[in-house]
Amino acid sequence: MIDRLTTFLSRLPPFGGSVSRIIVEENQTQMFYRKKRRYFWLIKIWIIGISVSVVTSNFKNILPSLSQRKIIWDSQIFKMAMLILFLHFLLTILWEFFHSHYSPIEKWKLEKLLRGFTEESDLLRQHDSTFHQTKSVKWFYFKVKGQIKITLKTGGHLSYNMENDIPRRLQGYLIKETENDWIIEDKYIDSGEIVVIFSHEPDERIFIDDLSQLKQSNEINIPLTKKLTWTTRQPMGLVVGPTGSGKTSLLKALIVSFLANNPKNKIFTIDGKASFLSIAMKRVGKVATDGQSALELTAELCQVMKERYAQINADIDSEKDCTHAELFKQGTILLVADELLALVGEMQASDKLLKPAERLYPQFYANLMNLIVKGRQSSISVIVSGQMLPASILPTESRDSIGLRIALGRLSQQQAQEIFGLGLKDLPRGDYSDYGGLIWLDGLNWELPRAFKSIYYDDEKLPFKKTLSKFSGSQGGGSPQA
Ligand SMILES: Nc1ncnc2c1ncn2[C@@H]1O[C@H](COP(=O)(O)OP(=O)(O)OP(=O)(O)O)[C@@H](O)[C@H]1O
Question: Which InterPro entries does the record associate with it (predicted)?
Fold first, then answer.
């Protein structure tokens, strides 16, 4: 009884982030029958109550009515009762409307929807073959900052497959019943508890056309879409896509955003094709376009990484597990390695003429892996980009350290496996038109990569080279410091 009362009260506040609860233990027909009986009893009580009140209040009018041979009666109580009946009727209609599928109050609407879903997907009877019947399920839901978190406590009776399928089914049901967008932002299943976080707003691409809009931040903090942000949680990145898919434009957007983040941030570039990027990037930092200079650049960064680690670990008693940027506020260093395949091809060809100890590629490879695997705490990030990145260039072990992975354009089976470690048929459908693709961000509890629309970089309003020159004027470029 107390449980029922508290769950009822939890659903009363129409707004705010308080958690509402529903216990579903009967189906809609049973509920309808119970409601009908309740209304029937209420009407019965009302009729008896009003009759008794009218008769008692008019008792004194019986004799005058008889003597004057006309009905004299006091209609005050009757009018009052009709008014109460009317108000009750109005409130009932409003209550039903605000708890229906058409309700403008989402929290109230959800009550009906979740009950409907429980019944439509037969949750009260779907069960593991060893159990005969699930007696009840509990729903918890709350809405905060445009997101709706819905938790289903199944009581552990649902089969494993059914539990896994609930988020998809619930999404389908909500879309069917409300005709709104219901986007699954996150979901997880944990010991008899299924949590799905929905929003109604599809993610949207962002535009970069004005430096003043860009974020400032001590560590990496770069919006990728309206909802997704590249942060220090995923310091290493991978951008892959065929010619014309928009890799360079995305790199431009990331580079400009990175420089805008913090005037102390520094960028170093390796461009295997010595293309536009290498020429532009000379304005803000060192650029390598051949094997020897790429090796020197990575060696220099490995040295900086070593020095930064020495600084971080100088206080041996410190309990803090912070990044260099957090501790020393000297900014982040970003290494952009574009078209690695071309560079590695060239290095391997010239290596054939050298003695094993002098070969460039093994040393370059060791440096790059070192930076990718150990760079995070020393606030050194790496973004690798190219049309293809076979395992010979970027081995599978290092890919596990790459928390930001973006594939632009349509993927082949092999690329799907290389970039996301999944088969093509297991990936969600991306919208590949208009510089779109798929994205994976580590540390966000995602089960699968998501559809992604690349940042739109407006070259006319923000010419890349000119913009870099502005940054170099304010920062000075130059060598990285520990
Ligand atoms: N995110 C974007 N914002 C604005 N324009 C874009 C974007 N992506 C692609 N474009 C347009 O498409 C053209 C090709 O894109 P881009 O050069 O970035 O592709 P790419 O994948 O780097 O190609 P390649 O491998 O041949 O260098 C650009 O010149 C630009 O006009």
Answer: AAA+_ATPase (IPR003593), FtsK_dom (IPR002543), P-loop_NTPase (IPR027417)
